[in-house]
Amino acid sequence: MLATLATAVVVGHSVQHRPITLVHVAGTGPRILVVGCIHGNEPAGIAIVRALERTHPKADLWLVPVLNPDGLAAGTRQNAHGVDLNRNFPSLWQHFGNPGSTYYSGPKPFSEPETRAARDLILRIKPRYTVWYHQHMDAVWAYGRSTAAGKRYAQLAGMRFLHRSWLAGSATNWQNHLQGGGASLTVELPAGALSPSAVAHHVRAVLGIAART
C-alpha cells in the first residue's frame, strides 16, 4: 500500500511523460503534504522538500518535489500544454487566456495530467495541512480555514503574512473548500535560490505548523 512506503514512488506523469514522484516520510503526527514546484520557473521550494526528505519528524510527511516536471525542464511557468496548473483546479474555475499565456486556465478543470495527479493524491491521503511553494512575493498567503496555519508558518519563517481571498482555479482554493482537504496555504518564496539557512528556516516552519493542533 502507498501509505507504507518510505521511498520515492511515481504518482503520475506529465504531458511529456516525465514522472511525478512522491516521498513519504512516515510519522505519527499530523499528515502534511508539501509541493515544491507547481510553476516550472519557480523552483526554490524543491530544496525545502529535499531537506524534509532527510528529516525524522513527528509529522507524517508526504512530499512532491515537482508537480510540473515539463515546466521545470523548459524553465516555463506552464506545463507542456501551455497551462498554468494553478488555474486548472475547479473552485471558481473560469476559462482564461490562451495556451502559453501567463495564466492560461486550460480548456476545463483538471484537464491536465499533473493536476489530476495532485487531485488523486489529495483525495487519497487527505492531508491535514498542505504547503504549496511559489515565488517571488516573499510572503505566506492563507485565508479561511488555513489562516491559523499560515500565521504560524509566517511567524516561524520570519515572513510577512497575507490574508486575502484565493485566486480562481487555484489549488489552495479547491483544497480549502474540499471536505477532508484540510488547511492549504501558499508560501511565496523570494526570488532566486534559497541559502542553506533559509532552507532550514522553512523546514522548521513546515514541521512547526503541526505543533499546535
Concise account of the structure shown:
The chain is of the alpha/beta class and 213 residues long.
Description:
The longest helix has 13 residues, at about 115-125. This protein is of the alpha/beta class. The radius of gyration is 16 Å and the shape is globular. Helices cover about 25% and strands about 20% of the residues. The protein has helices at about 45-55, 70-75, 115-125, 145-155, 170-175, 195-210, and strands at about 10-15, 20-25, 30-35, 60-65, 130-135, 140, 160-165, 185-190. The model is unreliable at about 1-5 (pLDDT under 50). Helix 4 links the parallel strand 6 (about 140) and strand 7 (about 160-165). It has six helices and eight strands.
Please count the beta strands (DSSP E, at least 2 residues each). 8
Question: Which band does the percent of strand residues land in?
Answer: 15-25%
Give me the Rg, rounded.
16 Å
| N-to-C span | 27 Å
Low-confidence stretches: 1-5
What structural keywords apply?
213 residues; alpha/beta; 8-stranded mixed β-sheet
Topology:
Layout: E1 9-13, E2 19-25, E3 31-35, H1 45-53, E4 60-64, H2 69-74, H3 113-125, E5 129-135, E6 139-142, H4 147-157, E7 160-163, H5 171-176, E8 183-189, H6 196-208
